[in-house]
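step 4 of 6: structure.
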Amino acid sequence: MPDTINVGFIGNPNCGKTTLFNAFTGANLKVANWPGVTVEKKEGRTTYKGQEFKLIDLPGIYSLTSYTMEETVSRECILSDEVDVIVDVIDTSSLERNLYLTLQLLELGKPVVLALNMMDIVEERGMEIDLHRLPEMLGTPAIPVSARKKTGLSILLHAVAHHNEYHTQGPLIHHHKDKHSLHLHNHHDEYAMVYEDYIEDKIDLIINELTKSNPGLTHKRWHAIKLLEQDKTVSANQLTDLTAIIDRSYEKDIINQKYDFIEEIISEVLVNKSRQEASTDKIDRYLTDKWLGLPIFLGIMALVFFLTFTIGDWLKGYFEIGLEAFSGLVSGTLGSIHTNAMLTSLIVDGIISGVGGILTFLPNIFILFLALAVLEDSGYMARVAFIMDDIMSRLGLSGRAFLPLLLGFGCTVPAVMASRALEHKKDRFKTILITPFMSCSARLPIYVLFSSMFFGKHAMLVCYSMYLLGIIIAIGTAYVLSKIDGSRAEHALLIELPEYKSPNAHTIAIYVWQKIKDYLTKAGTVIFIASVIMWGILNFGPCGYVTDISESFGSWIGKAVVPLFRPIGLGYWQIIVALIAGIAAKEVVVSSCSVLFGIQNITTARGMEAMVAALGGLGFGAANAYALMVFCLLYVPCTAAIATIHRELKSWKYTAGILVYQLAAAWIVSFAVYHLINLLQHYTA
Amino acid sequence: MTLKQGKNHTAYQVVSINIELKLERRLQALGLTDGTKITVLNNDKKGAVTVRFRGTRFALGKRIADHIEVKEALDTCQTQSM
């Protein structure tokens, strides 16, 4: 028994490989980058029956070519001594796609153990897998595992330890219908993947040449196949001239024949596939119909929205009551033990109201992601990309970008989080850039307050115009960006449409919990700090701790930047402070206004009258109010959203760039509408 | 003809894929290359198409569908390609 068995975990992206890896290693991880490249390398250790295993988590890849960094890294690692046994993690629910990598791995000649993950999904879809026939055809153990439920783990390790000792593979039993070879060596009971005679002949010839020129070479068959594919790396290391044998690239032949073999495997191993296919075809006839597809999607989204913001807001109300009670309790307790007023204010006004304010969004986020998880797990989300692709392509965005934009009307935070479904970095950036322009629900109180104060019976129309303006700016931005980077009308959608299935409670629970945990932990830490900073700005002045906000640094900053805001009709320090405070959360603009202008119950009729009078005295009229609403619509999103944007982009530079753009857009558009309305008033008066 | 010109529920065979290498590689890794059987499922819209190849359904953007040259598969029951 070797001291330590080195096991390389490999598999397609999203096959549950990392979950399985973590199930073995727990928190026992060593994360580094592969030498020279920024692809994550994870290592962990585990023991089973006294045998020690070193596990290496390789990047998720579809094939073992050398076109991407991930593939190169994985291939080099597997070929090196770093890996004794390969564990090929398979998403069994899409066996065809995963077996392609498997066949390539088998060709390497190293021991391979298949970990059949996601068997529960296979069962849910009413399919069955012949677990006896599959290993028989591939000549390698296939162990059903569940990364989530942590089942099959010991058996897998046992297979790894066992399989490691055998260097020849078990007998292969194939029943090829018309593939009996006339070729000199019949490899059908030797290798799982046997090519047609014309390729096998060439492989034999190349192996002969390789044996002559490079006797020490291991994995000869693999090298020969790679040479036939004219693989760049392998060909570059090949010194002998083989052009007589390799007269062209046989890559496409090799791919096709691998997939032909996979079809053979599937037809023997997978039971009940066609029944599911037929029902999916039937559902797709309606859901992806030319005319019905879009209305059905919009209907579903309207329902999701309705649930999120009715049930969500209803629960949110209770959260707010609870929060109020809690902060009352804390301030009472702190008062009774004679805590310093400043510390009390920091805890109650800064931390509890800041972090707590974010917690109150939790019900909305929970329901939204619950609904999305159901749609995703049932297989519908992929269809959305298809339905929306044409419309979004015209804006230089992928079809999948529609969802985050729509969610943006609810809350920017989950919307930005949903942009993770986008495959390309550029798409993700564009979507994240324009998502905050979708007017989130937190901005509504501002519109309601100011439009009813200054626009009377047209208030509703003014509110609507905000939403419309946001959409126009978002579309305009996307359009201009796509013109700049030349990605207009990409139309390069490429997405698998899985078969429909009834959603699985466990999968959904995990998905939703992940999102909520993300929201709470990572956004929470930044929000905590931001709340403290905001509190500091509004409660400290040049003379230290102040209770009057007008002496704080906030007002000081507000007064300093008044000239900047005068051209857009917002040259009032109180308004600027309210806007600064609004970065904590947009609703805060309303409450800050009431504090700053010393008006109580600002949302009541009398409060509004007093506010209009106070503002009117300063020369703040309808044009200013409209400019303020526009500014609130477009300027930087709240701290929670900023934190989320940063987390998704993983770059302060891009995050800052987005904020600068939003500020600039807010200023320019406010400037335009302010002067336009003034002009209109001038002529109509 | 191109895949985009294909009729619903009709089987075709790929003649060539003339698109940038990156996309061609991705299609290859998914099992779509010269000679592969591909069935058009839904080509009603102006843009994207849904197809089936290698046992899986896919949605392909218009540009991809425009750049895949296909010919009608002679016998739809024939499963062995090439």
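step 5 of 6: annotate
 - Chain A touches chain B through 46 residues (CB under 8 Å).
 - The radius of gyration of chain A is 31 Å.
step 6 of 6: archive
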